[in-house]
Design goal:
The chain is mainly β. The protein is built from three helices and 16 strands.
Amino acid sequence: MNKLTSDSVNMRYRFLALPLLLVSCLAQAQDASLLAGGMRVDQNEDDTSFAVALGYNHHINKTISVSADYLNEGHPKQHHRDGLGAQVWAHTAIPARGWSFAAGIGPYYYFDTTTGSGAFSDYRNEHGWGQLMSLSAKYHLASNAYLEARLAHTHGITSHDTTMLLFGAGYELRNQPRAIRLQNAEKGDNTLMLLAGRSIVNSFKSETATSYGLEYRRTVNPNVEWSVILMSEGKVDAAERKGVSGQVWLLRPFTERTVLEMGFGAYAMRDQLDRTDANDERENHVAPIASIGMRYRINDTWRAQLTWSRVITNYERDSDVFMLGAGVAF
Protein backbone atom coordinates (compact mmCIF):
# COMPACT_ATOMS: atom_id res chain seq x y z
CA MET A 1 0.00 0.00 0.00
CA ASN A 2 1.30 3.47 -0.83
CA LYS A 3 2.63 5.42 2.11
CA LEU A 4 1.13 8.91 2.44
CA THR A 5 3.03 11.76 4.01
CA SER A 6 1.81 13.15 7.30
CA ASP A 7 0.94 16.51 5.72
CA SER A 8 -1.04 14.85 2.94
CA VAL A 9 -3.03 12.73 5.35
CA ASN A 10 -3.79 15.69 7.60
CA MET A 11 -4.95 17.83 4.68
CA ARG A 12 -7.17 15.19 3.15
CA TYR A 13 -8.77 13.97 6.36
CA ARG A 14 -9.26 17.50 7.65
CA PHE A 15 -12.06 17.53 5.08
CA LEU A 16 -14.05 15.09 7.25
CA ALA A 17 -14.48 17.75 9.93
CA LEU A 18 -16.56 19.84 7.53
CA PRO A 19 -19.15 17.15 6.69
CA LEU A 20 -19.51 16.52 10.42
CA LEU A 21 -20.33 20.19 10.93
CA LEU A 22 -22.62 20.22 7.90
CA VAL A 23 -24.52 17.15 8.98
CA SER A 24 -25.00 18.46 12.49
CA CYS A 25 -26.83 21.32 10.80
CA LEU A 26 -28.59 18.96 8.42
CA ALA A 27 -29.95 16.79 11.22
CA GLN A 28 -31.89 19.77 12.58
CA ALA A 29 -32.39 21.76 9.39
CA GLN A 30 -35.60 23.77 9.14
CA ASP A 31 -35.61 24.65 5.45
CA ALA A 32 -34.01 23.59 2.19
CA SER A 33 -33.32 25.66 -0.92
CA LEU A 34 -32.25 25.17 -4.53
CA LEU A 35 -30.79 28.12 -6.44
CA ALA A 36 -29.26 28.59 -9.88
CA GLY A 37 -27.72 31.46 -11.80
CA GLY A 38 -24.44 32.80 -13.15
CA MET A 39 -20.82 32.96 -11.96
CA ARG A 40 -17.95 35.35 -12.75
CA VAL A 41 -14.23 34.95 -12.02
CA ASP A 42 -13.26 38.14 -10.20
CA GLN A 43 -9.84 38.53 -11.86
CA ASN A 44 -11.31 38.08 -15.34
CA GLU A 45 -14.77 39.56 -15.82
CA ASP A 46 -15.09 37.86 -19.22
CA ASP A 47 -14.65 34.42 -17.63
CA THR A 48 -18.20 33.39 -16.74
CA SER A 49 -20.20 30.20 -16.31
CA PHE A 50 -23.28 28.75 -14.61
CA ALA A 51 -23.67 28.22 -10.85
CA VAL A 52 -25.92 26.05 -8.69
CA ALA A 53 -26.42 26.06 -4.91
CA LEU A 54 -28.16 23.54 -2.66
CA GLY A 55 -28.59 24.48 1.01
CA TYR A 56 -30.04 23.46 4.35
CA ASN A 57 -30.67 26.05 7.05
CA HIS A 58 -31.31 25.76 10.80
CA HIS A 59 -32.53 28.73 12.86
CA ILE A 60 -30.89 29.06 16.27
CA ASN A 61 -33.02 32.05 17.28
CA LYS A 62 -34.96 34.88 15.63
CA THR A 63 -31.87 36.55 14.15
CA ILE A 64 -29.16 33.84 13.87
CA SER A 65 -29.09 30.67 11.78
CA VAL A 66 -26.50 28.21 10.43
CA SER A 67 -26.46 26.53 7.05
CA ALA A 68 -24.82 23.68 5.14
CA ASP A 69 -24.24 24.51 1.46
CA TYR A 70 -23.17 22.71 -1.70
CA LEU A 71 -21.94 24.99 -4.51
CA ASN A 72 -21.21 24.11 -8.12
CA GLU A 73 -19.20 26.99 -9.60
CA GLY A 74 -19.56 25.82 -13.17
CA HIS A 75 -16.88 25.47 -15.85
CA PRO A 76 -14.81 28.65 -16.24
CA LYS A 77 -11.66 28.43 -18.39
CA GLN A 78 -9.45 25.50 -17.36
CA HIS A 79 -11.45 24.89 -14.17
CA HIS A 80 -14.32 22.64 -13.07
CA ARG A 81 -14.98 23.51 -9.44
CA ASP A 82 -17.50 22.79 -6.70
CA GLY A 83 -17.38 22.61 -2.92
CA LEU A 84 -19.01 22.37 0.50
CA GLY A 85 -19.53 25.30 2.83
CA ALA A 86 -20.97 26.05 6.26
CA GLN A 87 -22.20 29.56 7.07
CA VAL A 88 -23.41 31.49 10.09
CA TRP A 89 -26.20 33.91 9.13
CA ALA A 90 -27.49 37.13 10.72
CA HIS A 91 -30.95 37.99 9.44
CA THR A 92 -34.00 40.11 9.99
CA ALA A 93 -37.12 38.68 11.62
CA ILE A 94 -38.95 36.21 9.38
CA PRO A 95 -42.56 37.21 8.71
CA ALA A 96 -45.48 34.88 8.03
CA ARG A 97 -45.61 36.58 4.62
CA GLY A 98 -43.21 39.17 3.22
CA TRP A 99 -39.50 40.00 2.97
CA SER A 100 -36.50 38.97 5.09
CA PHE A 101 -32.81 39.78 4.55
CA ALA A 102 -29.65 38.01 5.70
CA ALA A 103 -25.83 38.00 5.51
CA GLY A 104 -23.72 34.86 5.98
CA ILE A 105 -20.05 33.87 6.25
CA GLY A 106 -18.14 30.66 6.85
CA PRO A 107 -15.51 28.14 5.64
CA TYR A 108 -15.56 26.61 2.16
CA TYR A 109 -13.79 23.41 1.10
CA TYR A 110 -13.39 23.23 -2.67
CA PHE A 111 -12.68 20.55 -5.28
CA ASP A 112 -11.10 21.99 -8.43
CA THR A 113 -10.28 20.12 -11.62
CA THR A 114 -7.67 22.25 -13.36
CA THR A 115 -4.68 21.87 -15.69
CA GLY A 116 -1.00 21.32 -15.02
CA SER A 117 0.50 22.46 -18.34
CA GLY A 118 -2.50 24.22 -19.86
CA ALA A 119 -3.59 21.15 -21.83
CA PHE A 120 -6.91 19.51 -20.93
CA SER A 121 -5.25 16.07 -21.05
CA ASP A 122 -2.87 17.15 -18.25
CA TYR A 123 -5.44 17.70 -15.52
CA ARG A 124 -5.10 17.63 -11.74
CA ASN A 125 -7.53 17.58 -8.81
CA GLU A 126 -6.83 20.35 -6.33
CA HIS A 127 -8.48 20.62 -2.89
CA GLY A 128 -8.29 23.43 -0.39
CA TRP A 129 -9.93 25.86 2.00
CA GLY A 130 -11.40 29.28 1.35
CA GLN A 131 -14.21 31.46 2.66
CA LEU A 132 -17.82 31.69 1.52
CA MET A 133 -19.77 34.95 1.97
CA SER A 134 -23.38 35.59 1.03
CA LEU A 135 -26.14 38.21 0.97
CA SER A 136 -29.71 36.96 0.70
CA ALA A 137 -33.19 38.40 0.14
CA LYS A 138 -36.22 36.12 0.60
CA TYR A 139 -39.90 36.64 -0.02
CA HIS A 140 -41.89 34.31 2.23
CA LEU A 141 -45.15 32.87 0.93
CA ALA A 142 -48.07 31.72 3.06
CA SER A 143 -47.50 28.07 2.06
CA ASN A 144 -44.19 27.61 3.98
CA ALA A 145 -42.32 28.25 0.74
CA TYR A 146 -40.15 31.23 -0.19
CA LEU A 147 -38.47 32.79 -3.18
CA GLU A 148 -34.81 33.80 -2.82
CA ALA A 149 -32.19 35.96 -4.53
CA ARG A 150 -28.62 35.50 -3.31
CA LEU A 151 -25.25 37.12 -4.01
CA ALA A 152 -22.42 34.72 -3.03
CA HIS A 153 -18.64 35.15 -3.09
CA THR A 154 -15.80 32.64 -2.64
CA HIS A 155 -12.56 34.13 -1.32
CA GLY A 156 -9.01 33.05 -0.54
CA ILE A 157 -8.70 30.66 -3.47
CA THR A 158 -5.56 31.55 -5.42
CA SER A 159 -6.30 33.51 -8.63
CA HIS A 160 -9.81 32.10 -8.83
CA ASP A 161 -12.13 33.91 -6.43
CA THR A 162 -15.66 33.99 -7.84
CA THR A 163 -18.91 35.92 -7.44
CA MET A 164 -22.30 34.30 -8.09
CA LEU A 165 -25.80 35.74 -8.55
CA LEU A 166 -28.40 33.07 -7.80
CA PHE A 167 -32.20 32.82 -7.86
CA GLY A 168 -34.48 30.05 -6.68
CA ALA A 169 -36.87 28.81 -4.03
CA GLY A 170 -36.94 27.05 -0.68
CA TYR A 171 -39.33 25.19 1.58
CA GLU A 172 -39.64 24.73 5.32
CA LEU A 173 -39.05 21.13 6.46
CA ARG A 174 -41.67 19.96 8.93
CA ASN A 175 -40.67 17.89 11.97
CA GLN A 176 -41.93 14.33 11.77
CA PRO A 177 -43.47 12.51 14.79
CA ARG A 178 -41.15 10.10 16.57
CA ALA A 179 -43.31 7.13 15.52
CA ILE A 180 -42.77 8.01 11.85
CA ARG A 181 -39.04 8.48 12.37
CA LEU A 182 -38.79 5.03 13.98
CA GLN A 183 -40.57 3.46 11.00
CA ASN A 184 -37.88 4.92 8.73
CA ALA A 185 -34.87 4.15 10.95
CA GLU A 186 -35.04 2.39 14.32
CA LYS A 187 -32.16 1.27 16.54
CA GLY A 188 -31.04 -2.22 15.55
CA ASP A 189 -32.41 -2.12 11.99
CA ASN A 190 -30.29 -3.84 9.33
CA THR A 191 -30.51 -3.05 5.62
CA LEU A 192 -28.99 -4.92 2.68
CA MET A 193 -29.04 -2.98 -0.58
CA LEU A 194 -28.06 -3.71 -4.20
CA LEU A 195 -26.86 -0.59 -6.01
CA ALA A 196 -26.01 0.34 -9.60
CA GLY A 197 -25.32 3.57 -11.45
CA ARG A 198 -22.60 5.69 -13.07
CA SER A 199 -19.17 6.83 -11.99
CA ILE A 200 -17.60 10.00 -13.42
CA VAL A 201 -13.87 10.74 -13.40
CA ASN A 202 -13.17 14.33 -12.29
CA SER A 203 -11.25 15.27 -15.44
CA PHE A 204 -12.04 17.67 -18.28
CA LYS A 205 -13.37 14.77 -20.34
CA SER A 206 -15.55 13.53 -17.43
CA GLU A 207 -15.18 9.88 -18.49
CA THR A 208 -18.01 7.65 -17.30
CA ALA A 209 -18.39 3.98 -16.45
CA THR A 210 -21.04 1.68 -15.01
CA SER A 211 -20.75 1.33 -11.24
CA TYR A 212 -22.34 -1.16 -8.90
CA GLY A 213 -22.21 -2.09 -5.23
CA LEU A 214 -23.55 -4.11 -2.31
CA GLU A 215 -24.24 -2.20 0.92
CA TYR A 216 -24.89 -3.39 4.46
CA ARG A 217 -26.19 -0.73 6.85
CA ARG A 218 -26.88 -0.76 10.60
CA THR A 219 -29.04 1.81 12.42
CA VAL A 220 -27.53 3.10 15.69
CA ASN A 221 -30.48 5.40 16.45
CA PRO A 222 -33.04 7.34 14.34
CA ASN A 223 -30.34 9.93 13.52
CA VAL A 224 -27.19 7.81 13.00
CA GLU A 225 -26.23 4.76 10.93
CA TRP A 226 -23.02 3.09 9.75
CA SER A 227 -22.41 1.15 6.55
CA VAL A 228 -19.97 -1.07 4.70
CA ILE A 229 -20.12 -0.94 0.88
CA LEU A 230 -18.41 -3.25 -1.61
CA MET A 231 -18.11 -1.08 -4.71
CA SER A 232 -16.82 -1.18 -8.26
CA GLU A 233 -16.50 2.12 -10.13
CA GLY A 234 -16.33 0.33 -13.46
CA LYS A 235 -13.81 0.52 -16.31
CA VAL A 236 -12.47 3.65 -18.01
CA ASP A 237 -10.56 2.36 -21.04
CA ALA A 238 -8.34 -0.40 -19.59
CA ALA A 239 -8.37 0.91 -16.02
CA GLU A 240 -10.74 -0.31 -13.33
CA ARG A 241 -11.12 0.69 -9.67
CA LYS A 242 -12.90 -1.23 -6.94
CA GLY A 243 -12.79 -1.46 -3.17
CA VAL A 244 -14.67 -1.30 0.13
CA SER A 245 -15.77 1.80 2.03
CA GLY A 246 -16.97 2.33 5.59
CA GLN A 247 -19.10 5.39 6.37
CA VAL A 248 -21.00 6.99 9.23
CA TRP A 249 -24.36 8.45 8.20
CA LEU A 250 -26.44 11.16 9.82
CA LEU A 251 -30.15 11.25 8.97
CA ARG A 252 -32.84 13.91 8.73
CA PRO A 253 -36.51 12.96 8.11
CA PHE A 254 -37.85 14.82 5.06
CA THR A 255 -41.35 13.38 4.62
CA GLU A 256 -43.24 10.53 6.26
CA ARG A 257 -41.43 8.01 4.03
CA THR A 258 -38.29 9.87 2.95
CA VAL A 259 -35.02 10.39 4.84
CA LEU A 260 -32.19 12.71 3.81
CA GLU A 261 -28.72 11.42 4.71
CA MET A 262 -25.09 12.48 4.65
CA GLY A 263 -22.20 10.08 5.12
CA PHE A 264 -18.44 10.30 5.46
CA GLY A 265 -15.65 7.80 5.99
CA ALA A 266 -12.77 5.99 4.27
CA TYR A 267 -12.50 4.04 1.03
CA ALA A 268 -9.85 1.32 0.62
CA MET A 269 -9.41 0.65 -3.08
CA ARG A 270 -7.32 -1.12 -5.67
CA ASP A 271 -6.68 1.13 -8.65
CA GLN A 272 -4.96 0.99 -12.02
CA LEU A 273 -3.55 4.32 -13.21
CA ASP A 274 -2.50 3.48 -16.79
CA ARG A 275 -5.72 3.42 -18.82
CA THR A 276 -3.99 2.11 -21.97
CA ASP A 277 -2.42 -1.09 -20.58
CA ALA A 278 -4.73 -3.73 -19.12
CA ASN A 279 -1.70 -5.49 -17.60
CA ASP A 280 -0.39 -2.41 -15.78
CA GLU A 281 0.37 -2.86 -12.09
CA ARG A 282 -2.50 -2.17 -9.65
CA GLU A 283 -1.98 0.08 -6.64
CA ASN A 284 -3.61 0.11 -3.21
CA HIS A 285 -4.91 3.42 -1.83
CA VAL A 286 -7.03 4.70 1.05
CA ALA A 287 -8.98 7.91 0.48
CA PRO A 288 -11.74 9.92 2.18
CA ILE A 289 -15.24 9.49 0.80
CA ALA A 290 -18.24 11.77 1.42
CA SER A 291 -21.83 11.07 0.37
CA ILE A 292 -25.25 12.69 0.16
CA GLY A 293 -28.34 10.58 -0.31
CA MET A 294 -32.06 10.05 0.03
CA ARG A 295 -33.85 6.87 1.13
CA TYR A 296 -37.51 6.01 0.56
CA ARG A 297 -39.51 3.53 2.69
CA ILE A 298 -41.65 1.56 0.23
CA ASN A 299 -43.17 -0.59 3.00
CA ASP A 300 -42.06 -2.24 6.24
CA THR A 301 -39.58 -4.45 4.38
CA TRP A 302 -38.45 -2.72 1.18
CA ARG A 303 -36.34 0.42 0.79
CA ALA A 304 -35.17 2.43 -2.23
CA GLN A 305 -32.06 4.62 -2.15
CA LEU A 306 -30.27 7.26 -4.24
CA THR A 307 -26.72 8.37 -3.31
CA TRP A 308 -23.98 10.59 -4.66
CA SER A 309 -20.46 9.93 -3.36
CA ARG A 310 -17.29 11.97 -3.89
CA VAL A 311 -13.99 10.06 -3.72
CA ILE A 312 -11.20 12.46 -2.66
CA THR A 313 -7.73 11.25 -3.73
CA ASN A 314 -4.23 12.68 -3.54
CA TYR A 315 -3.11 11.28 -6.92
CA GLU A 316 -5.37 13.12 -9.42
CA ARG A 317 -8.09 10.45 -9.53
CA ASP A 318 -11.12 12.05 -7.82
CA SER A 319 -14.47 10.67 -8.92
CA ASP A 320 -18.21 11.05 -8.43
CA VAL A 321 -20.27 7.88 -8.00
CA PHE A 322 -24.06 8.03 -8.46
CA MET A 323 -25.95 4.92 -7.37
CA LEU A 324 -29.61 3.94 -7.31
CA GLY A 325 -30.71 0.79 -5.54
CA ALA A 326 -33.27 -1.23 -3.63
CA GLY A 327 -33.01 -3.57 -0.69
CA VAL A 328 -34.57 -5.15 2.36
CA ALA A 329 -34.69 -4.05 5.99
CA PHE A 330 -34.61 -6.76 8.65
